[in-house]
Amino acid sequence: MFLYTCRIEHPAGGYKKIFETVEELAEPLPAVVTGVIPPWLKGSLLRLGPGLFEIGEEQFYHLFDGQALFHKFDFKNGAVTYHRKFVRTDAYVRAMTENRIVITEFGTFAFPDPCKNIFSRFFSYFKGVEVTDNALVNVYPVGEDFYACTETNYITKVNPETLETISKVDLCNYVSINGVTAHPHIENDGTVYNIGNCFGKGCSIAYNLVKIPPTQKDKVDPLERMKVVVQFPCSDRFKPSYVHSFGMSENYFVLVETPVKINLLKFLSAWSIRGANYMDCFESNETMGTWFHIATKKTGEYQNIKFRTSAINVFHHINTYEEDGFLVVDLCTWKGFEFVYNYLYLANLKENWDEVKKNAMMAPQPEVRRYVLPLDVDRVEQGKNLICLPYTTATATMWADGTVWLEPEVLFSGPRQAFEFPQINYKKFSMKNYTYAYALGLNHFIPDRICKLNVKTKETWVWQEPDSYPSEPIFVASPDAVDEDDGVILTVVVTPGAGQRPAYLLILNAKDLTEVARAEVETIIPVTFHGMYKP
């Protein structure tokens, strides 16, 4: 075991290399393997992230703007190959054709074509914005197909074998949704759940939770059977909260509505007239705190209980499960109402190390938290803690106005040290009382370690090497697994220093994060966000 808070410094600034443009590969590269690849590891690690950070003379400004690059590490007979291709989205194809940024991204505005005359440029401002399909965030299966995604209404069907782009899909053609998260929940039978905002009753904003069934015997595309199963109300009629993920237990859905808001009026007016980007339309509600919403999974009934807590940012749920009449919700949080994405502009992330640290000192601070929600709040005594689970210090207190105020148990906290991009043994322990979570450790927003947390004892393990920048850890269970943590962790590590190969796939023992093997490649690999192991 290592102390999570022991800190490595990065004065050489090698992390800057993970935010630089690379070229796609014409064919897979063979990797040089050190150690022994487990013989049962025979699938592919699929990853998504930005790979093109400028087009022509125009720069992308935000971490979530670069054009989507699809990565794959293949395991076969103890050997490993690496391949990558850009996803042929409309945003990418048109940008490459015109040699400029054509579609506005998260933090970068696409200026009108300078070759157009002043009248056509003027009217282009009033046609509304083209929503990006830049699928740089994640990849997941729907039925027998695989889709790369961002957080808009567009997902992109891809071939996980060849990395070729197949087709663009507009989810608005199937359900009422303005966009969905890049973090669906997928049950073992293949059922997919996801959430996004929509226009609800009386033209007010709501959040629709959608269900996509697994492939049926008739082989109809499961998207054709996609439907809304729950509609959550919004705390503000015209300002939905930014929702990056959601919780799901065996019988409930959980939506955490944070004070980070999207101002729709600003969104529409700013984009139509003066040309803004997505980031310009976020604002913080400094007084609302954070609202927890729950709904029953079987009936889709919204539970009108006023669960409230202090202001936090939430991007990633770790796990959600029920026990003895309580709903346990484990989250990676950032304290306060200021939007964390304000600190993820590329100019900030590519600063020298002392400046990176100084910027992070001003940002909301990360904390892993456990909230516990009582499912029965009828006939309860005001002012009394309603939580009686013996293993948590989290509390829930009924106030006179019917509010149930939640105070969390802190599972991990380290100054400027985030436990983020969490993963668990999802197939066996999603929606269940579990013990272990794995995560990417962010040191002042720079990824420099892989972490394991025992959520019961708060014990931590860390893998870390100097000037090495890993990615989200993916847990793969061993075929004969008995314990929850029997298996390996897969992560892509960038090592830009001289005298070594610039990147490798790292395989760690999931029990203690000791190295099992690494597969080095002769090419730099830029930052990746999320992905999956495909057996």
TrEMBL record:
It catalyses: an all-trans-retinyl ester + H2O = 11-cis-retinol + a fatty acid + H(+); all-trans-retinyl hexadecanoate + H2O = 11-cis-retinol + hexadecanoate + H(+); lutein = (3R,3'S)-zeaxanthin. GO terms for molecular function: all-trans-retinyl-ester hydrolase, 11-cis retinol forming activity; beta-carotene 15,15'-dioxygenase activity; metal ion binding; retinol isomerase activity. Binds 1 Fe(2+) ion per subunit. The keyword Transmembrane helix does not apply. It is found in: Cell membrane. Its EC number is 3.1.1.64, 5.3.3.22. Its cofactor is Fe(2+). Keywords: Cell membrane, Hydrolase, Iron, Isomerase, Lipoprotein, Membrane, Metal-binding, Palmitate, Sensory transduction, Vision. Fe cation binds at H183, H244, H316, H530. It holds the Pfam family RPE65. One of its GO terms (cellular component) is plasma membrane. Coiled coil: none annotated. It is a lipid-anchor. Belongs to the carotenoid oxygenase family. This is Retinoid isomerohydrolase.
